[in-house]
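Review box. Two proteins, two foldings.
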Amino acid sequence: MRRADGAIPPIALQPDAGAPLYLQLSEGLRQAIVSGYICGGTRLPSTRGLARDMDVSRTTAIQAYRQLELEGYVVSAVGSGTYVTDELPDRIVSVAVPAPSSNGHPDHERSLSDRGRRMVDRFPDIEHRHGVMPLLPAVPALDKFPYKMWRRIEHEVHVPTSELGPGDAAGHLRLRRAIVEHVAVTRAIRCDVDQVVITTGAQEAFSILAELLFDPGDSVLIEEPGHRGGASAFEAFGAEVVPVRVDADGMDVDAGISLHPDARLACVTPSNQFPMGALLNMRRRIGLVEWARAAGSWIIEDDYDCEYRFHGAPYPAIRSLEGADVCTVYVNAFTKILFPALSLGFVILPDALVEPFKTARALRDYPPPPVPQLALAKFMEEGHLMRHIRRMRQVYEVREAALRDALHETLPTLLEVAPATAGTHLVAWLPRGVDDQEVSARAAGEGVFALPISQFRHQCADRGGLVLGFGGSPVPRLGASVRRLARAFG
């Protein structure tokens, strides 16, 4: 017998079971669909209704529906709702939810390691993104990428049989040489090709560095608010994360050093602080290097969006300062410059870390495949990368202005847009007392990706905000996205 639209069976959620609530909820709904309790074509409750009925947050309800959609059990139609598919997936994928033992804790054999628990507990809502949602930060202008030229270069790349083996753990020599020349011109960094290691992106670099540099309990200075990629890797390896406030001049280095003068490491985004967009001033850069050298500590320079300053030349990298080469690891990725699926980044290492990093890299996996590396090397050698960056500065400046204007026109009293001089996103502050995570969840229900700034904090703040990306959206789409965002405010 077909159930009425919106009817779901009782689902027992166990907050202490060891699996996130959204996975427990999606598993309960999946079983109801597979068993026939909920028939194909049935309209499921709204995320707000599901959250109310199950006594969970709306974010949990949204994530549960997303999980089912990824697995092919439901489809979502903007403005209409979420429906069970008429044809179920060929392969039934189930999520094992650990059953509590007699003492109320998950069975020992199914429990996570301490490192795994720290990772999941700190980042329960990490997005496994598929596709590009409107206003998603850190997405480049994919519509402006020269795909025909890239395909031509890939077809011209010849990989000899001798290079089809595991390859150098540091990555292809030709790409590393191109990177050495590129950073010398754009970031004033002088380095040897042997100090460059190719990675699959910044996150792999953070994970390897955390593995190499931290013992449990070591402290690391991070920006507050700040990018959570590095923090997630450091916390996973047992580091004590020390949030250091960010102001108009970037991380307050003096405050951080006074909090933990013996910190093992400081991780900064000095050229375009994420998410606030601040530029770490020269006095603080020099102070950071002096501290690291004196304390025997390390600096990770995550040069996020360093290429896209709208006015004036970018600051030189911290790694280029006198004496910084012995204590600074420079991290960058091509995913935000070109396209995310490229999955290529690099580190420039102090001499003392070159061999340890290469060893750790080799123990993890093979280096990235040779064809993308060689294609990127040729792309750089022929000058296409620099031309693309120059074009994108103009594109992003126009898109930034368009998003700012649309927010001012549509939400003038609800959002206070912070100034921005670089990058591919804006920060928009909410009125005090408004929960940015709740607004973000409602925006997701409208098909708009508005990251809550609280997601990038370790400490509570008296004001929430949204991180809104404009890089991946043409100007006409930005206006439409802001109108959808406005619906999230009711």
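Next protein.
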Amino acid sequence: MEGRRDDYCEVRQRTEALAAPLGAEDQVVQSMPDASPTKWHRAHTTWFFEELVLGPHVSGYEVFDPHHRFLFNSYYEAVGARQPRPHRGMLTRPTVAEIAVYRRAVDESMLHLLDQLEHQPAPGVSELVELGLHHEQQHQELLLMDAKHLLFQNPMHPPYREVPPPDPVGVELRSGAVPVVRNGRTNEAWIAHDGGLVEIGAGSDGFSFDNESPRHDVYVPPFALSERLVTNGEWMAFIDDGGYRRPELWLSDGWALVGSQGWEAPLYWAREGRRSTDRAEDPFHDARDHDRSVFTLSGAQVIRPEDPVVHISYHEADAFARWAGARLPTEAEWEIVAREHPVSTAGLAMAPAPHPRAPGSSPGTVTGADPLQFRGAVWQWTASAYLPYPGFQAAPGTVGEYNGKFMVNQHVLRGGCCATPPGHDRVTYRNFYPPAARWPFTGLRLAVDA
């Protein structure tokens, strides 16, 4: 269990490092019902180890505070009632400092347990600890997503961390160049695949979540995937061509959101110095003007056309694909091509304020290891609904609630993103969000039928 002990310390310390740039006031506020305060993330991941590992497997263990079972339970019905998710930001007590004490106390008990397990292994406990560590890594990404959304609500748009933007990478973008398929011709490079009966899903090697199994066969007709992600420059062309004003490009629910939410560009894009009358006459005006900015974890920056577009919903991705004469890939298509282009993300150092960048950008932007950017830049929307694989069975007990009960009204995303912890992602990883979600680091890659 020595390796597990080291892994535990590394993951737990990284959560604290990610929270460190945020003051106590930053860590308490909740920007929307789908987001959670930083303090809650730190407490919930600690509660997970206390509730699912220490309580059931340490004889005579006394919980740190009985109130935590209600305050920091996320969605586990087997555990009992909980603070409503939209009201997590109202938990001013326990304080940020008290949560730090809670984390240290649980860490002390966990390390003692891990030392014991090295000499006296207990069935299933090591697997629970591993699940808890991957669970905390998920919340590390959520912590950054939620903090970014919160800071964006502040009119000053304060940065999470002050980090200068990378230098341009010298990518030549043809004026108006988009990866369109028209009249049988394309200006885009594609990775063709013959399709056929293919196998997808996680095997028995290494960790995987239950929703990645069982491994199974899928028939896939011939297809091709774009060699690269859709970029900001291409999204500007979509905007300039009236992409947000053309109902024929959108699914019905998506078009309703364009109207009700006022979507006219990806989340966090902004215009500088435009009068409200300009906005009414021509939403977002001409996106190629140089007064376009995007809010990042290091503050507002000029939009770089060569960078992957990010913070778009499934509906926006689907509309863009239709406009481009293409479509979104299925998750099976994505997985079999990504498997043929393996890349290790284990050695990547997390950027201080992660944001997706074009391949070849300056070091520390978590893009250089994968020039095709199948992994580590943006979560890529797929056309696949989030459903159980054939033969899926939820695990017995509380951990069985982890993924299975959310298999409805969501779409699968693949590939990890710039905020995904190093080593956490893998080619079979199935992330999922509702189709209207925009605050995750979400982008897209196009597909076509061969």
